[in-house]
Write a structure and sequence with these properties.
The protein is α/β, with parallel strands linked by helices. The chain has one domain: Rossmann fold, CATH 3.40.50. 56% of the residues lie in helices and 15% in strands. It is built from seven helices and five strands, in the order E-H-H-E-H-H-E-H-H-E-H-E. 37% of the residues are buried.
Amino acid sequence: MEPAFWDSSSLVPLCIWQPSTLSAKALSKQYGMFVWWAAPVEIRGAFARLLRIGQLTSTGQVQAQVALDELRSNWQELLPTDELRSQAERLIDRFPLKAADALQLAAGLAWTSGRPRSRAFISGDTQLLEAAGQLGFLPLKA
């Protein structure tokens, strides 16, 4: 299985049914998962938001957490470093990204040792995918 960097937005549909679930599942059969250290916090935040707005039941939230735990057992996490944070700061200046997305992209760059050429970057966020593509990643929409 080929490795890829997975953004949080591409992992949520693997835990909760969403319009992009089929696409994300197909990609998960093709690509191994490298994930930013804080992604589980972002993903659980998505679960909590969906629960608050009534798009997820409390039972669904528990099921989503079980699915997340299963994913976590099979992915590799990129840990925070001073260099990764500095890279995220530079990415904020260069691209119109939210802080969390800049950290995701910096983690992807750390995963490739700064050489993203044609390495898969999977996300559900169009703006993040555009920035990843400009850096040389192969952007894949989940």
